[in-house]
Amino acid sequence: MKYYLIAGEASGDLHASNLMQSLKQEDPHAEFRFFGGDLMSAVGGVRVKHYRELAYMGFIPVLLHLPTILSNMRLCKRDILKWKPDVVILIDYPGFNLDIAQYIKKKTNIPVYYYISPKIWAWKEYRIKNIKRDVDKLFSILPFEIDFFKRHNYPIHYVGNPCVDAIDSFRKQNNESHEDFILANKFDNKPIIALLAGSRRQEIKDNLPKMLKAVSSFPEYQPIIAGAPGIEPEFYTQYTCGMQVKILFGQTYRLLQQAEAALVTSGTATLETALFRVPQIVCYYIAAGKVISFLRKRFLKVPFISLVNLIANREVVPELVANEMTSEKIIEELSKILKDTPERYEMLREYDRIIQILGPAGASEKTAHAIYSSLSKNADA
Question: For the chain, how big is the Rg over CA atoms in Å?
């Protein structure tokens, strides 16, 4: 069968690539065409556009790049119509993907499946109308989404979380000691504080300087930055110039496996950090912080921004957001989770509870099986 996938950022590329691998196990004759990244390309198929040409964040960047975004949407729609896949599989990235879904449902009979559902439970709840109209099947990776979609009389399928899959697979293949990790990368022999400042330039620009200033207050630790895919080293060195800090590209899981603590910009990385059982502080600076804090309380439908706290349904990790994200606050919170403190042990206990809630590995396999079985039934009908 022919599968057309659309992923618009690094995390989507990872999860889509794992799904593609599982689809190949279900369907040895699978053909892929996609908007995505290097990991999807490594699985095989034809990449139409790299996600780096799609990912714009925030009102102003989106506005400035609107002609490019609209051009990419038109290209995607034309390409789907020309290739005539058996299914279109959307991976997160709702601003782009829901527009594609609407077009495909209006113009064709191609089924539209969504893997990693849009986070409409946080805001833009009105998008449920689009999903009910345009999406044939929705596969959820977050257990708390089930109740939300049930309230809207829309059936979803919880398949487990692909981060569990990715980290389970990594651990089976990597049993590296701290000493080997240090030697392989020529790092100092100090405990590590990992800095995960986001996957987009604006996130890094807003968050990394404050993170670096904070960790400089802990000279007995070494800060190591997890370099984001598609961001060149020079972009980081403008912030690290003159500082004793290393940047590690393509090795985020290796870094988390060895880290004592982490500063993490909200997103999938917060959950990955928890799955590695690394105590963390969520750091997300936004300009005009007081205004954003007010709007967040007024319009955001959920009490937290990190997946860790949302899954736990309580504050497990501190969230320093908007005007609360200062170097001073980071220092204060970081002091509580370094060394053997009650706060550190409580966070680790809650991580174990979250791991139980998420369930075992197998999200990609379950989703691939459900997709292939559904398409096969439709073909036989």
Answer: 21
Q: Are residues 265 and 334 in the same domain?
A: yes
Query: Angle, nearest 10°, between helix axes 268-275 and 342-358?
Result: 100
Give the Cα separation of 258 and 143 in Å (integer).
Answer: 28
Distance of CA 93 to the CA centre of its chain: 10
Amino acid type, 224: I
In this structure, are residues 218 and 248 in contact, taking their beta carbons and an 8 Å threshold? no
> What is the reported pLDDT for 61?
53
Mean pLDDT of 367-377: 95
The crossing angle, in degrees rounded to 10, of helices 10-26 and 162-173 is: 80
Query: What is residue 323's predicted lDDT score, i.e. its pLDDT?
Result: 85
The Cα–Cα gap between 281 and 296 comes to 19
| Structural domains in the chain (count) | 2
298 in the same domain as 194 = yes
Range of 106's domain? 2-160+362-380
pLDDT band for position 229 (50/70/90)?
confident
Average pLDDT over residues 229-242: 90
Q: The domain spanning residue 313 has which CATH number? A: 3.40.50.2000
Strands 157-158 and 112-115: unpaired
Above 50 in pLDDT, residue 274? yes
Q: Could you tell me the pTM of the whole model?
A: 0.83
The answer on 203 and 132 residing in a single domain is no
Residues in the chain: 381
Cβ(254)–Cβ(176) below 8 Å: yes
Indicate whether 44 and 147 sit together in one domain: yes
Query: Is the pLDDT assigned to residue 218 strictly greater than 60?
Result: yes
Describe the chain by its helix, strand, coil percentages, rounded to 5. 55, 15, 30
Say if residue 215 is in the same domain as residue 177. yes
Q: Are residue 210 and residue 132 in the same domain, yes or no?
A: no
Find tokens 């527009």 and name the residue.
99
Same-domain pairing of 31 and 145: yes
Written as six digits, the tokens of 214 are: 């904070």
Task: Assess whether 219 and 277 both reside in one domain.
Answer: yes
